[in-house]
Amino acid sequence: MKKLNLLFALIALAAVILIPNFLKNYGIHMFTTWLVFIIATMGLNLTVGYAGQKSLGHAAFFGIGAYTVAICLKAGLSFWFGLPMAALFCFVVGLALGFPALRVQTIYLAFATLGFNTALWLVMRNEEWLTGGTYGINNIARPSLGGISFDGNLAYYYLVLTFTLVLALLLWGLLNSPWGKAFTALRDNPIRAESLGIDTRGYTLLSFAIGAVYAGVAGGLYAAQVQFIDPALFTVGASIMMYLMVVVGGPGYFFGPVLGSAVGVVLPEWLRFAQAWYLFVFGLAVVVLMIWLPDGLLSIPDRIKARRQSREASAAREVAGVKA
Amino acid sequence: MIQPVLKVTNIKKAYGAIQAVGGVSFEVRAGEIFGVIGPNGSGKTTLFNSMLGQIVPDEGKIELKGEDVTQLGPLALNRRGVGRTFQTLQVFGKMTVRDNLIVAAQEHQGSMFSRMFAPKDSGLGDKADALIDQFRIRHVADKKAGELSYGQQKLVDIAMAFMSEPDLVLLDEPCAGVNPSLVGGISTLLKELNRSRKGSFVVIEHNMDFVMDLCHRIMVMVEGEVLAIGTPDEIRANKQVLDAYLGN
User: Fold this and answer.
1) Is residue B171 classed as helix, strand or coil in its secondary structure?
2) Which domains does chain A possess?
3) pLDDT tens figures, B27-73
4) How far is the first Cα of chain B from the last one, in angstroms, to the nearest whole number?
5) DSSP run (H or E) holding B203
6) Any CB–CB contact under 8 A between A198 and chain B?
7) Which of A116, A201, A321, B222 is most buried per CB count within 10 Å?
8) Angle, helices A256-270/A278-292, rounded to nearest 10 degrees
């Protein structure tokens, strides 16, 4: 099974490296957007899927990252300074947003984070001297490094791909360290976790802060990708869409964001043939998915396994009954 | 004089007009298995929750190896060597049995920062395997805890409390919901652990045979107060206890 997974991962890696070479600009743009949202939702998956917190404010961190990079570039600073600043700023704000989670949970926490997103969005819209207000910030330059320019769409795609792989490996390492088990324990049973010496306060705060860092880096990369940002990109609606991506892919599954982001980014584009009905079709598809697969697309193998085990157990009981 | 592991002095806790615990005092000695029995509503759970930092008593003092821990919460108590089990099952159902045991002790290894770079099993694999063998759950070690039977999960739950080698373990109804054939097994396991680890246990349990067989001393509570403290034989012979609780 592990060999099969490795083979599948290698084929997927080869695909994301090779396929964009055969695509036009729009296709490359879609692939880049997909990768950006994979990064953002990897962070949200840590907060929501692994640590069990509720967050409807992830787009605010995405926005903080985007604006930090854009403002740094406008101030004449390098992208390579702006992106770490975006990550650092998001870490600090994410840590602060984690504090409500120490007092409230479930739907109340969701509303607290939603309020945070709305407040941040208002800052982006109203503080024109800093953010450009509703006019946004345009002409955001793409970076270069060591003489290599990432101005071209394909070059920039490979830069984003590199970030995606590095951040995925870091998250994989984190989740496979004792921290991964601590996050899962926090999600599944915080009272038991605390009785075992797990600092539930610390891990709750860190789940928000690290998740925010991923959103911030994604936002910074997105700003340079689209080269124009305005507050409309970072609304509560965008946060809900990111949450949806995590839930559709499978919260708590490492590759959930890969599938969820594909559904969230690519499916609306594929459904454009439906013209004005595409949002309706997209919404309906999500409703059907949630009814049949509430744990997301990646829960399919687990559901099949559970069904097989249940069948085997019933068969064993029947055999035992016949013998008796 | 040897210092007791746990010293509870004049603990009181009221919920409104109801005095749940009204001035309870006792000591638990090193290596002792101390039982707490009493009918429903006698204040056992309130007393237990006070000792575990789940609630703060209105009055009184709780000392752990001489340190006043009355105001400390569950996290701080665990760090000071207190393990516990819950009345209802509290395993992590999506983790394997082995991972349940590892997570039960990993926070005692190094600092939070160093654990970020530690191996997945925090170097506790051998220790977990030893406990798995001792609890005779080797055949389910790699299964998810949520897939096990109630009795098997109960064993995992108890084993988790011992993973970090605590000085004091508080067991809240370890036999609750367990079929009678497993009760003897749990008693044997706890006796083995008591002998091999020299730890002290406090056990709340309704199963009288289990308590009488397992505990070195027993405290009987009635209506929030201590009716008697003594060895199982003394408790069996105590007329007050027989009248108030055990019946004839």
Assistant:
1) strand
2) 16-277 (1.10.3470)
3) 999 999 999 999 888 999 999 999 999 999 999 999 999 999 999 99
4) 38
5) strand B200-204
6) yes
7) A116
8) 150
The DSSP result for A119-162, as a single string, is HHHHHHHH-HHHH-GGG-EE-PPPPEETTEE--SHHHHHHHHHH
Residue A272 has pLDDT above 80, yes or no: no
CATH label, B1-81+166-248, candidates 3.30.70.260, 3.30.1330.30, 1.25.40.10, 3.40.50.300: 3.40.50.300
Instruction: Give pLDDT, residue B246.
Output: 54
Helix or strand holding residue B219 (H, E): strand B217-222
Residue B131, judged by CB atoms within 10 A of its CB (0-12, 13-18, 19+), counts as buried
H or E stretch at B133: helix B125-134
Closest-CA distance of chain A to residue B95, Å: 8
B230 — phi, psi (to 5°)?
180, -175
Interface touch B90/A180, C-beta < 8 Å: no
What's the distance, Cα to Cα, between the start and end of chain A in Å? 37
Residue of A nearest to B164 (CA): A196
Question: At A23, is the secondary structure helix, strand, or coil?
Answer: coil
